[in-house]
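Q: Give me the 3D complex with uracil.
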Amino acid sequence: MEEKCAWSTYNKYMARRRSAFLSQRRISSTEPPGHGPGHVGQPHLEGRRCCLLSEERLQKVMARAGVASRRRCEALIRAGRVKVNGTTVTRLGTKVSPWDKIQVDGQDLVWREPKVYLLLNKPRGYLSTVHDPHGRATVIDLVKDVGVRVYPVGRLDLETEGLLLLTNDGELTHRLTHPRYKVPKTYLAVVQGAVPPEAINRLRRGVALEDGRTAPAQVKLLGSSRDTSTLEITIREGKKRQVRRMCQAVGHLVISLRRTRVGFLTLKGLKKGRYRHLAPGEIRRLKQLAGSGTLQEED
Ligand code: URA
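A: Here is the predicted complex, encoded as structure tokens.
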């Protein structure tokens, strides 16, 4: 319930930011989006679409840039020590964008991007990479309108579908993908043949792969016929093509594979090919799960 409220508040917040941008509420910058002074050195912030989520309250931007706490930044603004595009700003509700030049006591402030956390329902046929030199479709094609550059947290194979996180938070990415933090990832695998109990026990105990033995896994047989079986497999590491290779090692080729969970996150309500922003409460829980709950929150 609490999660639901947080999510709806967050959606409203995002909608407000979007409409604020679309009404082009700017300070005194006369440059078009993507060409102002703040744009120098940030080639990824190109044009209008990219800046959709980039208009933020001045004190928040200042705090994120490391000037001081948000409260202290408000005091600096009120005291007339902050300029935006050469004009002293004392109004606390002032919104700024990456192309605005901000100065505190005459010193230029370096804009830091807000952290973004997305949950994508990846369809088959998309590469989990930022760019493909052969021009094939990547998961980034599915999140183009986000406004900041994000990258996938780990990989799902081209033919694997399901839950994929994308973010620009390098620390969290590291923790979610490093086996030391043991974040559980659950897959639904449809495999060839009827899987006998011995094979399931081997998968549970761990199987020998060419790059080492897999750690113990949770494995449930959800259904079985003569031709195929459906397994739910939860692993806490992330070797390359791990689930496919584990199943193959016990004699059952994977026909289709879908990741259904990462930690407490599921695909509930999210159609294939669609993404959503994580709610602030989900981000907090995810950081805790990955052992970084003490990292400073952006929001
Ligand atoms: N294991 C696999 O075999 N493939 C994936 O994409 C993810 C886990």
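A quick observation: Helices lie at 2-22, 47-50, 58-64, 70-78, 170-177, 197-205, 242-249, 280-289.
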